[in-house]
C-alpha cells in the first residue's frame, strides 16, 4: 500500500483553487525559497517544533513516552505523519457536500506534493471516481514523468512561476528554473488547465514580472493569473524548527501590489 508523509490537512481553504476546498500539505520540497512561508514542509522527514511562547511549564515533555500530542500548552508540534490513501480519502470526502455547492474540491500542495507522485496519482484517481474536483499546487521542479502520473486526474494545476531568468531563480530558490518552465509548457501542450501563481517579493523578483507576463502570453490554457504578495508571518516557525530564518525584510506595499497586478491585467 502506497503511503505518503504529510504535514497538515487544511479544511475550508478558499485560496487554493476554486470554491471551498480541503488542502493536503505534503512534506518535502526540492527548492529552498528565501521567502518560504511553509518551512515545516521543506524537509522530507517528520520534525518536531517547539514554540517557546506557548510553553506552560507543565513538565509533560520530561516524562517517559512523551509525544507532541501530550503537550498541554501546544508548544510542541509534530510536522509530518505517514498516511495511506485508504486513511486519507475518507477524511477528504467528509466535506464533499461543500465542494459540490461551492464548486470546490481537494488541492494537493506542499512542500512539493509531486515529489510523492505515486501516492498523489492514486489519491487523485480515487477522488475523480468520487466526482471531486482536483487541483495540484506545484513548483514544477520535478521530472516530467511525475507530471504524467497525475495529469489524467488533475482538473487544474496551480503552477508557481517565481522568475523567468535562471540566475534570479537560482538566487531566490537555490535551483535552476529550466525544468520548471519546460514542464509548464508541457502541461499547457497537454491541454491541462493552469492557474499561474506568482509570489511577489520586492527586491527579489520585481524585474521578472514583465518577462513572466510575456511567457504567459505564449500559453493557451492559462485560466487565471494570481499575484501572491509576500508576507513574513512564518518567522515563528523557523525559530520553532531551529531553522535559519531567510525571510526578506521588505514587505510589498499596496501600491507595489497594485502595480504588479496591473502587469497581468490585460493578458488574453
Q: Describe it for me?
A:
This protein is α/β, with parallel strands linked by helices. It has a single domain, classed as Aldolase class I (TIM Barrel). It is 31% helix and 22% strand. It contains nine helices and ten strands. The strands form two sheets. An eight-stranded mixed β-sheet has the order 5-1-2-6-7-8-9-10. β6, α3 and β7 (133-138) form a beta-alpha-beta unit. The longest helix has 13 residues, at 117-129. The radius of gyration is 19 Å and the shape is globular. The N and C termini lie far apart (44 Å).
Brief rundown of the structure:
This protein has 268 residues and is α/β, with parallel strands linked by helices.
Quote the beta fraction: 15-25%
Q: Structural class of the helices, strands and pairings?
A: alpha/beta
The level-1 CATH class? Alpha Beta
What's the name of the CATH homologous superfamily? Aldolase class I
Second-tier CATH architecture: Alpha-Beta Barrel
Q: Give the averaged pLDDT, no decimals.
A: 96
Notable characteristics:
eight-stranded mixed β-sheet; 10 strands; 9 helices; 268 residues; alpha/beta; 22% strand; two-stranded antiparallel sheet; TIM Barrel
Amino acid at each position: 500500500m502506497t503511503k505518503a508523509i504529510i504535514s497538515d490537512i487544511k479544511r475550508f481553504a478558499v485560496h487554493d483553487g476554486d470554491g471551498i476546498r480541503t488542502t493536503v500539505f505534503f512534506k518535502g520540497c526540492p527548492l529552498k525559497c528565501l521567502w518560504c512561508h511553509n518551512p515545516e514542509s521543506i524537509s522530507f522527514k517528520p520534525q518536531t517544533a517547539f514554540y517557546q511562547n506557548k510553553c506552560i511549564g507543565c513538565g509533560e515533555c520530561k516524562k517517559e513516552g512523551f509525544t507532541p500530542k501530550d503537550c498541554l500548552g501546544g508548544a510542541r508540534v509534530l510536522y509530518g505523519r505517514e498516511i495511506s490513501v485508504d486513511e486519507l480519502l475518507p477524511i477528504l470526502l467528509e466535506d464533499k457536500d461543500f465542494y459540490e455547492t461551492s464548486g470546490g474540491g481537494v488541492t494537493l500542495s506542499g512542500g512539493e506534493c509531486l515529489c510523492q507522485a505515486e501516492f498523489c496519482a492514486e489519491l487523485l484517481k480515487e477522488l475523480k471516481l468520487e466526482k471531486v474536483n482536483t487541483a495540484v499546487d506545484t513548483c514544477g521542479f520535478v521530472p516530467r514523468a511525475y507530471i504524467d502520473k497525475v495529469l489524467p486526474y488533475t482538473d487544474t494545476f496551480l503552477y508557481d512561476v517565481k522568475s523567468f531568468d535562471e540566475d534570479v531563480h537560482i538566487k531566490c530558490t537555490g535551483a535552476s528554473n529550466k525544468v520548471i518552465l519546460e514542464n509548464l509548457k508541457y502541461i499547457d501542450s497537454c491541454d491541462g488547465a493552469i492557474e499561474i501563481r506568482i509570489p511577489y517579493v520586492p527586491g527579489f523578483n520585481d524585474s521578472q514580472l514583465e518577462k513572466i507576463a510575456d511567457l504567459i502570453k505564449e500559453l493557451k490554457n492559462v485560466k487565471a493569473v494570481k499575484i501572491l504578495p509576500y508576507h513574513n508571518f512564518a518567522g515563528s516557525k523557523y525559530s520553532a524548527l531551529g531553522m535559519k530564518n531567510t525571510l526578506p525584510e521588505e514587505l510589498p506595499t499596496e501600491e507595489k501590489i497594485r502595480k504588479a497586478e496591473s502587469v497581468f491585467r490585460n493578458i488574453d
